[in-house]
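Service request form, structural biology core

Requester: graduate student, group of Dr. S.
Request type: structure prediction, single chain
Budget code: on file
Notes: please return the result as structure tokens.

Sequence provided:
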Amino acid sequence: MLHVKNLFDMGREGQLRLLHFVGRVYSHPANGFELRCYHLAARLARRMSVTHLGFCRVNENAAPSPADSWLRVLAVPRETGYRKLDLLRGLAGATPFSVLNFTRRSMTDALARLLREERFDIVLIEGVQMGAYLPVIRQAPGVPPLVVCDWHNIESEILHRYADAAPGIARRLYARRAGFSLERFERRFARQGDMHIAVSERDRDELIRYGAASVMVVENGVPIADFPPDELAAGFTPGKRFRVLFVGSMDYHANIEAALHFSREAWPAIRERLPGAVFTIVGRDPVPEVRQLGALPGIEVTGTVPDVRRYYREAFVALAPLRIAGGTRIKILEAMAAGVPVVATSRGAEGLAATPGVEYLLAETGGEMAQAVVELSRDAQNAARLAQAGRELVLQRYDWARLGDTLADRLVSLIESRKAAGS
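Core staff response, request fulfilled:
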């Protein structure tokens, strides 16, 4: 286990201690999952001592940036990629592949050792993928910590949806079997946590249906301070705002499918009517199929970028063209915070308190996407109206500072209730 510490107060006497347990360290967040982990932990660290334990890539520098003096990281190296044996065990056994993929002896040993050496009031598990470690947490010496799970998505729902759209009968059958296996695991896990966190009311209702006794909603958000007021995006303006922008990790199957489908079904019509526009796909680790899109006219694939805000400043529209999705999309909230109009499918905008035609434009098919993008490029007044409404929604509801403080209040209350019951 790699110990990575900044100048960090290891916990003043009487201060609550939280172990943030994740599948991948977030010292340099680059996708929606990591951004949620990072920003919530940053707010929690104002109220309690936070230790972060997660996997990192072999030879990865997991050290936090100098600005993150609150972040203590314990990183366990893990080879990337899938193990074929886990794929087979996931089909035949009771533990689904997506959980087996994050189950390693090295992490079991690191977690058990940490719980022997230090006392924690709460373990916050990020995602059901880390659910196989729950017995290790429950066996912690002394008073076991409370276990809280943050469900970024209902993962089995995404697999069920993927099974309906996957190319090839073999993939569809595997995804369907994997989806049912994961749903059974989710149901068991939901009944074992002390509290669960959902990203939307819709996901909260599903967890209650699973049998979870205590569920609170903490929606996704954006750091509003990173998006200061700027001119709202106008229509297509060569040299200034010329990008049709899609942001998301390009090693994630839902984003891969969306990028490929939009490029085939919508982009040719947009390119014909707006020859100066550029379709920019921003996101880390693009798979070969996505990289190959960069050879098509007017399409740019960037991979990881140091600051996505530059691309928002050059965009006249941002897309969420997902057909397979779950949870809520941080990419939509970022675009709204940046004052960029959004075009999204119903699944792309699922879980957000946004109204089609008010804060974003709804478009389901490739033809509808193309039409919406072209119309926005030619109607600066409507583009500005959508951009302003979207930004106001984010300011009122989706600021990480407010969301993180709400979670901190609930966790402190949970511990106080436990102490009162114990006394």
